[in-house]
Amino acid sequence: MTKNSIWEFSNPLKFKKLAGILIPIFGIIAFVCVITGLSWGFFYTPDDYKQGPLVKIIYVHVPSAFLAINIYLMMFLASLIWLIRRHHLSALAAKAAAPVGLAMTFIAIVSGAFWGKPTWGTYWVWDPRLTAFAILTLFYIGYIILWTAEDEPDKAADLTSILCLVGSVFALLSRYAVLFWNQGLHQGASLSLDKEKNVADVFYQPLLFSIIGFVFLFLFLLLIRMRTEIWTRQINAIQQKLGK
Amino acid sequence: MILKITDLGCGYSSGFSLRGISLNLNSGEMLILKGKNGVGKTTLLRAIIGLIAINAGRITIDGVDVTNKLDVKGEIFSYLGHLNGLKSHLTVSENLKLWFDIFGESNSNVLEEFGINNLINKKVSECSSGQKRMIALARVFNCPKRVLLLDEPMVGLDDTNKKKIQNKIEEHIKLGGSAILVSHRHFPSNKTFSLKSSTIPTSSSLNGEKDLLANFMV
Amino acid sequence: MSFTANGTAILGLVFFITVIFVSALGFDINSTDFNLIGPSLIWVTALLSVLLSAKNLIQDDFRDGSLDLLLISPIPLELVLALKAFAHWISISLPIILICPVISVLFTIPFDNLIILIIGLFLGTPALSFIAILGASLTFSLRRSSILMPILIMPFYIPTLVFGVKIVNFTENTNEYHINGLLILLAITLLSMSVLPFAAAMGVKSCLK
Q: pTM of the predicted model, to two decimals?
């Protein structure tokens, strides 16, 4: 493969090979786990005595919320690696992960809303956790938009990485601010309105499947997106060379 | 003082805009960058001062490597680019005071020499473009550092002022300073450095690259 | 150096006052909630004033060539940006804080609440200016930066806004409650002032490459 300008294709080449192998594997695992988790959860677990069948929405809600936050964490790490080591793949990974993260946040919010209305009487409430998810949505959107605003890929990677890092710092700060606010100077148990810590085992196992399934779904989508991005950049580089 | 540039290259991931530039400059020497429009003269000047990151090669001054070290370069170079660096809502004296506070001031009467003393209390936005250029040049020549980096300093100036600036530069050289200029004006007895762009004919392979070769001519 | 920001100061204050007046008129005066709206409205309008006046903090210098000179200068870029943010705070937020007692009459805010509001604004608005300079540093060389910057910056403003308003409007008046909130605002501001100049400097330098 020709080595064009400064763009190093050695690592992305290896990556493409790896991705080629992993993508179908992850896809299958994702498919199996998600289907298992969801159908087991939806159809084979007993109805909650209070909330009826609606509580089963946690099989979608919990994994998506879990991923929404963890994808941002992953983007934080990837951005850090880009700024320090300038490893193009990590910048790509962050860029590719963002829309998936946004989708997960959206799913989490919507599924939460559908769960919330019949159960607690409202689609939305401005408690810390939900406000945090609203902020997270805005972070994702801003991040994605910033990528599109700059043509030069390295510079775009720089700017978005800085945004992600500062965003993460603020997110952490806000989390501790809220804890501080609720408990004063004493750290107590964190309030969680919609995380079922006391879920019985019979609910827990399909939930596990669901979570794992969603994680692999994310990895599957991530790898596909990264590979597509590499192809796009290679095509652009070739076009530029031919054009010049 | 010896300024050495070896094999300099800079540019974006989509392609180098400069490559393989090598040149030397000693005290008391003036170097004119020549080449067609768009070939990279301004880019080279900005790369030397550090406003464009250098991806390949080195710049050394008296043996000390100063590649990409912006803070050090501020002590050694005086830079004037295409833009004047003047805040239009402030007066001339406020502008100059601002930059003198940052870069240093001397007691020279460069304002008088340039004939802009009468503009001291005028807002920069009210000055003509030629006057603004002279003000920017006054900033440089009030306290010039060892090496002048001037990018088309005489754009928009009338003939008298062009002569004044030329004299100022030559005076600076005589006193032991040096200068790298982008200019289309003729300066007697100087080195020139031509930037050429050449296109290797593209065969059917994908290896065709637009490259910038540097030719050094005295 | 920092006075270059002051061109828009008066305009910012006029904007603030105008929006407050107009918004006040937009609410039903007789509803019982009207008196509670005051602090929230003040905070939101202050936020908007900061945001809209911050667009050109770096872009002006970029456009007239001053940014180049600042980058070469011996002054660390972080310090330059911090000073810009600070000057911005002085010129936009400080007048707003000073005019608060007058504005509060419109909404009949009780004196105790007013004190909390003003202290909260004082502790929290510097963060807004410093966040704004980060936004400016990331967007100054991009097209459509005037729309882009507010979008990027908004999420960062939410914590300050939420805490600033929360501590005023509550009926509980325990001192610890207020102090906790003010401490949080202070923490956000201090964090912004210490971290963001470095992040903003990185943002500016990324345009050199």
A: 0.83
